[in-house]
Each structure stands twice: as C-alpha cells, then as structure tokens.
C-alpha cells in the first residue's frame, strides 16, 4: 500500500481552518492524512468517493475548535454542509453528514447505501487507537503512516480536551460516542 503524502484538494479544504485550529493544526492535518490513507487502503475507490472522503475528513473534528467543545459532532457537520452547498455538491450532504456524525459509532454502520460511512468510521478508529484496532491493515503500513504523519500532539490534545470536558460534565463523559 502506497502512502499518499500530498493531497492538494485536501490542503485546500484544510487551509481555511488553519487559524481556527491554531497550534493544533499540524496534528489535526496529520490525523486527517493518516485517516484518509487508511480509508484508501481499506476501500480502494475512484475520484468521487475520494473527494467525499476528503471533505468528510477535513471537517469531521473541526467542531473541537470552532465551538471549543468535546460535543463536536453537530458543530462539525454544519461547516461541511455549508461547504457542500457553496461548491454545488449538496447531493452529497446526507452521505457526508453520516460520515461525520457516525465516525465515533461503536458498532458498525450497516446502511448499504453508504459504504463510505463504515470505511470512514473504521479509519478514524484505526488512527484514534494508534493502530491497536487495525481492521486488517498491516503494522508496517501503519508504522510508515505514523512516520510520514506523526501525531504532533494530536492524541495528547484529545486527552487534555477530554479530561477538561469530564471535569465539567462527569455524567456525560463522551458525548460524541454512539452505539
């Protein structure tokens, strides 16, 4: 499996968020690159599917920064939908909304109309778990992916954000998770 280290379209999607994400930008960018490489390895696909995955990837966690909350799923969907509308891609709204809203689903997403949702969910879990969960992806591939796109504080930042959230919301420790 070849690692894609440059995705120009993805860069155009991420760049407008650089200031909002601030010091976490490199870590988030690397997370998205790792995720997308996992998506492409799990589900080789053509240009339209790759574009959908890149759009979902760029926006899927953005609510962490735009709304400064761990309850970031809805705040991540809204700018994605605005982007789709702006680019005359509104026909993709349901699928991309599902990719974002279901990416922390614990159980598999089984709606056969949208196979990319399950691919996206798996890829995020591979990266979030730092390869503990692999869905058949090889350790050498994941090691090479992490060497190309180091965490750059992304995982540590998630732990810090989750810790602060849990202190404020002990009865709702992981609002972004769903069954």
Description:
Helix content is 60%, strand content 0%. By secondary structure, the chain is mainly α. It has a single domain, classed as Hypothetical protein af1432 (Orthogonal Bundle), CATH 1.10.3210. It starts with 7 loop residues before the first helix and ends in an 11-residue tail after the last helix. The mean pLDDT is 93.
Mean pLDDT: 93
Main CATH class: Mainly Alpha
Structural class category: mainly alpha
Question: What is the beta-strand fraction?
Answer: under 5%
How many helices? 10
Count of folded domains: 1
Largest sheet: none
Radius of gyration: 15 Å
Topology as a string of helices (H) and strands (E): HHHHHHHHHH
The span between the termini is 31 Å
**At the third CATH level, what is the topology name?**
Hypothetical protein af1432
List its salient traits.
globular, 10 helices, Hypothetical protein af1432, 0% strand, mainly alpha, 179 residues
Gist of the model:
With 179 residues, the chain is mainly α. The protein has helices at 8-14, 18-21, 25-42, 47-59, 63-66, 73-86, 93-101, 115-128, 139-148, 154-168.
